[in-house]
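User: Fold both of these, please.

Assistant: Here is the first one.
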Amino acid sequence: MSSTAPDTGRKYIDCAEFPTENNCQLRISGKEDEVLKAATQHAVASHGHQDTPELREQLREMIKDE
């Protein structure tokens, strides 16, 4: 029997993996579109970024398989 977990399609992004001024430890997981939406809202509200297509693309590139 394989010990590898099944691919659930879940994705995550973890602020702790990227240096921030406020040492943010938030981790967001779910379906890719859910993660991107929540991460964009978080980046704007908590980190002062502007919601731009460029920000969304940068965040999309940071999303990993869970």
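And the second sequence with its predicted structure:
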Amino acid sequence: MSNRAAPRLSKWPFLLADAALMGVAWLIFWQCPAPMTVWDTFFCAGSVAFGAALCVTPFLLEYRAAMKLTEADRLANAVLQIENLEILGRQITQATAGWQTAHEHATKTVDAAREIAQALTTEARAFGEFLKKANDTEKNHLRLEVDKLRRAENDWLQILVRILDHVFALYQAALHSGEANLIQQIAQFQNTCRDIARRVGLVPFVVIPGERYDPKVHQLADASLVPGAEARVAETIATGYSYQGQLVRPVLVTLQADDVPEMAPSDAGIPSAPADARPETSR
């Protein structure tokens, strides 16, 4: 609200005129004989009334000027408030436009993020399928390699068993020759070969003559014969082998003469297995 002061009106002319009229009324009242006539009373009362009106007039004029000034200030404040409202309306309009723009950008960002998420999901699914296929391919490849290694292991194991069998046959031939030097050399050669075989897990073993027959690790040349519970081993015909703790081939033996069982009539036509039968390796 404005602090402007209302304009001041000089009151002394009005007061002077009021005093003059009061003096005129007093003069009329003092000069007129009693009783006063109608005209004297009229002029006396008129002078008093006109003087009173002149005395009040400056105050009324100041009051009206103050009221007009107050109304002008109120109108100016109203115009200022209207301008502020217009500014506020423009700011609201600008804020609404900015919010709409931000909303559009946020919508675009959400859509882009959704597309990126879908693309990532698709890529992750494709990558997972690729890894699965690669894993299956690798498993198949490794399975084939393992099968190859097992076949190769079985092959070289059979080869090694045959070599040791031939070495054992040489040792048996040296024993039958009766030459001590030859027996010693072949025995050293056989022990060296067996030590080499033990390094890869192949352990050859023989039976001590007179040892009790054990069908789990012993085998007769004639599979149709069933030895008794107290049968004793007479001689080792072919060495037995175990590979990494598992029996590969039982040792082929003969029994002592007293423990050799008779062949059953139903089995008389079955030929006996050769001493150098091909060993069957297993894992």
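Confidence is low (pLDDT under 50) at residues 264-283.
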